[in-house]
Design brief:
- By secondary structure, the protein is α/β, with parallel strands linked by helices.
- It has one domain: Nucleoside Triphosphate Pyrophosphohydrolase, CATH 3.90.79.
- It is built from four helices and eight strands.
- The strands form two sheets. It has a four-stranded mixed beta sheet with strand order 4-1-6-5. A four-stranded mixed beta sheet has the order 7-2-3-8.
- A hairpin with a 7-residue loop joins strand 2 and strand 3.
- The longest helix has 13 residues.
- The radius of gyration is 14 Å and the shape is globular.
- It starts with a strand and ends in a 6-residue tail after the last helix.
- InterPro entries: Nudix_hydrolase, NUDIX_hydrolase-like_dom_sf, NUDIX_hydrolase_CS, NUDIX_hydrolase_dom.
- Keywords: Hydrolase, Magnesium.
- It holds the Pfam family NUDIX.
- It comes from Sphingomonas longa.
Length: about 150
Amino acid sequence: MTREPRPAARILLIDGQGRVLLFRFTPDDRPPLWCTPGGKVDEGETYEAAASRELWEETGLTLDCGPQVARRQVQFVTFEGQPVDADERYFRIDVDTCDIAAAALTEMETRVLDSWRWFTIAELSTWDEMIYPADLADLLTTTQAVVA
């Protein structure tokens, strides 16, 4: 199986109560799962630019995503069915409060994005659906806050 390289920017958006924003996806080929905002880096785009673009597209927020706070290399199959080698860079943004309103979802995202909610760190380990990345709680406790 040939895996396509997939650079991606992911956002750890934390509210004033210490909760992280996650999106619930319901693809046809697997059980529902929750993950952070973010997505593929477009050709010629930096990870930083992709993080800002993805944040706006998926939440409607126009914020500086700051520096990368973590990196992860994983393999998975995208919602489009493409096996990938993902090079994911994480950006952390801490906000007091904010409204979430998608600004520019893709057709695929509109089809599979079911809902969103803020999760406490305690909820991450007891939630009955898959949360990605699996070690999100550790990632949140080991990264530094970047206040927007």
